[in-house]
Amino acid sequence: MDAHSSSFSSFSAYLRALSLIPSRLSRRAFSVSTSFDEMTSTRYTSGVHMQRTLRWFDLVGFGLGGMIGAGVFVTTGPATQEAGPAIVLSYAIAGLCALLSAFCYTEFAVDMPVAGGAFSYLRVTFGEFAAFLTGANLIMDYVMSNAAVARSFTQYLGAAIGISSAKWKLLIPGLPKGFDQIDLVAVAVVLIITIIICYSTKQSSVLNMTLTAIHILFIAFVIVFGFCKGDWKNFSEPGDPKDESGFFPHGAAGVFKGASLVYLSYIGYDAVSTMAEEVRNPAKDIPIGVSGSVVLVTVLYCLMAASMIKLLPYDMIQAEAPFAAAFARWKWVSNVIGGGASFGILTSLLVAMMGQARYMCVIGRSRVVPAWFAEVHPKTSTPLNASAFLGVFTAAIALFADLDVLLNFVCIGTLFVFYMVANAVIYRRYVVIGSTNPRPTLSFLCSFSLTAIIFTLIWHFATPGKAKTALLSITAIVAIAISLIFHCVTPQAWKPQHWGVPLMPWIPCASIFLNIFLLGSLDGTSYIRFVFFSILTMLIYVLYSVHSSSDAEEDGSLRVKNGEIPELENSFKV
Fold first, then answer.
1. Which Gene Ontology terms cover its molecular function (predicted)?
2. Overall pTM surpassing 0.70 (yes/no)
3. Could you state, in order of their start, the residue ranges of all structural domains in the chain?
């Protein structure tokens, strides 16, 4: 299609395009791509390819850097009040949940090593609209969480050097509370990291490995110090004799409540999947890199929680600064913890900002946002435009929005995407577009999700007692029965060539169930934000995206030009 016939070439052309909304929605909204398309014609939209320079140890480093940030220092306190000394088991359960989701991501990333992550995975299963809706929410969560992390860097840096972070912020009278403190340090950190990730992916990996190594040394210090100075009796005796004693002071319910709280400390491994396009040997490196990083982080988190409990009984640990309270007897140790958290924040910010840029790059390749975002710079082989735009956007939000305000906006989009990817793995295994009836699989996914929602509602709102226990047991049995019937009746229509999720469909089902359960633990503000931004995303899709992708479809921009087919064999070394 020539420029003059584009939907956006003139106001009259745009009006004509709006009149075509029903037909274009029916054609594009549920149109699915293929793995081959994502790695050929869609990838060609970026012009220059990203260089394949990463190995499994780079991915492990990115995974560690992305997950071990400020989260463990923030969520451990509230979770310990729920789980008691069994906070160690809460971290282990949350780590298992993260590993289940990581398996789903890994199957897609190995079979389709492109930079789009969840957006590409959903585009080849549920279509363009579902991919855009989840991708847009995920990018917004990335931006908001990165701004929050940058603001928290100022606080931890102040704690490390013994200076109040309030002295580094400019108070602007007249602005609403929560938006009246200007944080120039957070802005500087975001912009510096933006420059780094624009320069080189491999160099960013080297920097991440260096900062992560330093951070892990701090964590090792915390673990060793706690085990040497602490007392094992804290695992069974509270500080106040009036409080519940034992390893499970609040029972199994407390352990699972704690797991739902600390699960947020594991968010970050999904960013590793966006680097699949830059991995030398996806079939080998991605499974080791993604799963390995989740396992290592789980071990470190469990040891950190154990060292904290050894130092201080669970009922004396503060909700807001748990490790600072545990090490309060040694003032210099609190400074060390602040320094370690600062390095962790830098690494998590680096990995997350790389992930958000690659999501935006591939969304641009599909033309649902301007193709300008899809461009890869010929010298740096990085998505320069997407990195710079989102970096500036993140810095602008980090400039004035307070940490508490930002934290209300994060997590729900990420958990929703995890839920969608788990569904997509099952759908792709049991449905081949054009040759398999999708109704049995869709019916199973809907009924299983509904059962998980009912379980979650009972868990959160039913009155404690035997009736609640019975209802939860019945609901769980129904979920297992639905899965068993589907497993026995419906054959798999496709199996991955190189690496696949084991025990299909049980592992993705467990991921679906757990992500719905965790979504149920979020507050109402998160859902209001999610609904508002989802409606905004739908409007953008109807008013811009569907017309842009239709134009690209009609002029052949989404197809390989001149019959050129890139060499794919290097993407699947075994």
1. amino acid transmembrane transporter activity
2. yes
3. 11-555
